[in-house]
From TrEMBL:
PANTHER family: SEGREGATION AND CONDENSATION PROTEIN A (PTHR33969:SF2)
Predominant subcellular localization, coarse grouping: cytoplasm
Protein's name in the database: Segregation and condensation protein A
Cell compartment(s), UniProt: Cytoplasm
Transmembrane segments: none
Subunit: Component of a cohesin-like complex composed of ScpA, ScpB and the Smc homodimer, in which ScpA and ScpB bind to the head domain of Smc. The presence of the three proteins is required for the association of the complex with DNA.
Family: Belongs to the ScpA family.
Keyword set, alphabetical order: Cell cycle, Cell division, Chromosome partition, Cytoplasm
Length: 243
């Protein structure tokens, strides 16, 4: 299958390891000062493994972060070393808490600790009313759409795959479908319609490999700068716009 031969590189295109860490902290709704390091480390490693299986290349910085989290987790499992006087040993998790807090402040000072991961450098906000009700795709009236991050997109795609856990006995995808073909198909759809919901892009595909190829095509189009992916913060609905 073509997706097995194609690799999507995320470095300098989407986000880095700190974005993934912040995403996991926010997704689990945990106290930044009381990070369940074992759970977050496991989810971080699972995400890296998932991206590798999807043929998404990750930068070396992701591996460094994974090693850092693993080391911190190991230190939290060890009994505290005896110390002179009454000075207490610092929580090993502070080694990651401090840079995370600083990163979140830099990422979005306006939202402080509630910073959102962004797919690009800017926030794309546009009232839903501009697109008409037909293109709402599950979004609420008047809702503004914000450009979303890679890891939010991965979460959305994982949910789609979870609904289709088994390979069907017969593939409905045309034989020899390539990444280029997929991109052309997506462009054909978006040239006719102003936007398409993320879920809708996979609604006609029953073959798991075909769905993965579509996902890689979406990532490649974002990398090429011809596709914008946005989400309604209230509804959580994700839509694709052809630039």
């Amino acid at each position: 299958m073509e997706y097995e031969r194609h690799r999507v590189k995320v470095e300098n295109i989407f986000e880095g390891p700190m974005d993934l860490l912040v995403h996991l902290i926010q997704k689990n709704e945990v106290d930044i000062y009381d990070i369940p390091i074992e759970k977050i480390t496991a989810e971080f490693l699972d995400c890296l493994e998932w991206m590798k299986r999807m043929n998404i290349d990750v930068a070396g910085d992701f591996l460094v972060m994974a090693a850092t989290l693993t080391q911190i987790k190991s230190r939290t499992l060890l009994p505290p070393a005896p110390r002179r006087g009454e000075e207490e040993e610092e929580d090993p998790r502070m080694e990651i808490v401090r840079p995370v807090l600083e990163y979140m402040r830099i990422k979005s000072a306006a939202e402080k600790l509630g910073a959102r991961s962004l797919l690009g450098a800017d926030t794309f906000a546009r009232p839903l009313a501009d697109f008409g009700e037909a293109g709402a795709g599950g979004m609420t009236a008047g809702e503004e759409m914000l450009r979303i991050g890679l890891f939010e997109l991965i979460d959305a795609f994982q949910k789609i795959l979870d609904k289709n856990p088994d390979e069907p006995p017969v593939s409905l995808a045309p034989e020899g479908m390539s990444l280029k073909d997929k991109i052309s198909r997506i462009i054909d759809v978006l040239e006719v319609r102003e936007s398409v919901s993320f879920d809708e892009m996979f609604s006609g595909e029953r073959d798991r490999k075909d769905m993965i190829l579509t996902f890689l095509a979406i990532l490649e189009m974002v990398k090429m700068g011809i596709l914008r992916v946005v989400q309604g913060p209230e509804s959580g609905a994700i839509r694709l716009f052809y630039i």
